[in-house]
Amino acid sequence: MLVIPALDLRAGRVVRLIKGDFARETGYATDALVQAQRYAEAGARRLHVVDLDGARGSGDNRKLIERLIRELDLEVQVAGGIRSLEGATRWLEAGAAAVVLGTVAVKEPERLNEVAAQLPGRVLAALDARAGRPAVTGWSELTHLSLAEVLAGWAGAPLAGVVVTSIDRDGTLAGPDLDLLAAARSSGSHPITYSGGISSLDDVAAVAAAGAAGVILGKSLLEGHVDLREALSSPR
């Protein structure tokens, strides 16, 4: 299982939200480039970067993310505000390893399929769930769809995988939502990368045992609950 450190960016700063709530934001003094370099030195292969401003349509952190891509020896997958083939292609041409489509993937699965067909193996779809329902637009809007309905709409797309996030657990350090992970795995065929609530090496092991292809770690790394080097070297 691939262990992927994450950086969430808002107005150029490294931040974490609790349960996707922008009013419950924690900012970190660390510089994004410095923090990402630490992850690279610990042995990470890939970095998950979320542009929270882009996700809400309130600006972007593009210049900073381009520096991360350009200056670090890491594969960078970019999420937040990518809603078209043009937007996805622009990131890949800038050197991103992959792009993550969320809102458009859920609301317009035919567009996701079109983008993935043009960029096979370079696109991931984001399935962000709150109370069992997919959420979009920076996690601010719940849809009426079920997880199974969303995943069925992506079944034929040549995706690199699906990133499943438990919004209810995200930023809480309360442990992973293994039921959500199981539901996503049983309803779709793409590899699943899980995110939300990871607080320990035991949590990482539990996600691996539940069949995830990858796990994303954010707050647990920033606040020292998990040592990335140990997480990367632990047998899974």
How would you describe the overall organization of this protein?
36% of the residues lie in helices and 28% in strands. With 236 residues, it is of the alpha/beta class. Strands 1-4-5-6-7-10-11-12 form an eight-stranded parallel beta barrel, surrounded by seven helices. Strand 5, helix 4 and strand 6 (98-101) form a beta-alpha-beta unit. 46% of the residues are buried.
Strand content: 25-35%
Topology-level CATH name: TIM Barrel
CATH class: Alpha Beta
Q: What strand order characterises the main sheet?
A: 1-4-5-6-7-10-11-12
Major β-sheet profile: 8 strands, parallel, barrel
**Global geometry:** globular
Please state the average pLDDT score.
94
Distance N to C terminus: 7 Å
Question: How many beta-strand runs?
Answer: 12
Number of helices: 11
- Please give the domain count: 1
Gyration radius, to the nearest Å? 16 Å
User: Which structural class fits the helix and strand makeup?
Assistant: alpha/beta
Helix fraction, binned, reads 25-40%
Low-confidence stretches: none
